[in-house]
Amino acid sequence: MQRRYIFAGLVLALLVGVFFSLRAEQRALIDFEQVEPIPGYKMEMRETPLRVAMISVLNHARTEGYQSQMVRSLGRLLGRPVLLLHRRSYAEINQLLAKGDADVAFLSSGAYMVYGKKEDVRLLAMPERGGTNYYFSYVIVPRASSVTSLTELRGRRFVYVDPMSYSGYLELRAHLRKMGEDPERFFRSSYFTYSHDDSLCAVADSLVDGGVIASLTYDYYQEYAPAMLEQVRIVQVLPGSGMGPVVARRDLREADAVQEILLHLDRDPEAKEAMEQLLIDRFVPPQPELYPRFSPEEGI
């Protein structure tokens, strides 16, 4: 019996030895010269987005989503990602352009008129609504006010929109000077809201005796929130100017392509839906003569 166990052990040891011998031989036959190349990793740089700066005379909270939708459509048709830049004041948008931090900008007419380096930017397009590319400045008062004209606002509390807003500041200041009035002394007090919408609300709530806003803002409320207009009255209409233009950096490589897309943007269903909410029927070729050079000092 003991011999049987010894014999079995020897056989098992022999089999194990043969197994490891074959494995060693197999390893010895591996040819390390025959290797398959490892697929390399391609580092794909994400394309730099088109930086689009925008400030609107319309209610920001209600229209921000539509602004984004319109700009996304522009990027999709251009085949390039876009980055939408919002700022509170017109001066901040102009600074983005001046510093090269924005490629395209939807400006207010006043912000373009006072832009110091027009040779550095290129007019691409301007909005059109109802067959016109022009808008006006409305001087408004609370509905219950006894004031019926601009002259009756002398010595009253007044609200402006922005120091670079043509319809909400510059035009009225220039108009007062033409009347022989000193804009600094005409009103008892005044301040900026940095929003046509907020100026309208301040007048509607009788926080001030009067204010000046763009006719586009008035039109927007007439269409989407007419109850607000029941609290104000228009006492003066000033001539206004061309609607705020779209401009690009002069050295923007895709400027021609962006312009072409803008001029046909109303044909894109997604863009058209957004444009309707922004009171834009279509974009048309710009008319520089509608944006005369206007220095802030002329209104101040």
Automatic annotation (TrEMBL):
<protein>
    <submittedName>
        <fullName>Phosphate/phosphite/phosphonate ABC transporter, periplasmic binding protein</fullName>
    </submittedName>
</protein>
<dbReference type="Pfam" id="PF12974">
    <property type="entry name" value="Phosphonate-bd"/>
</dbReference>
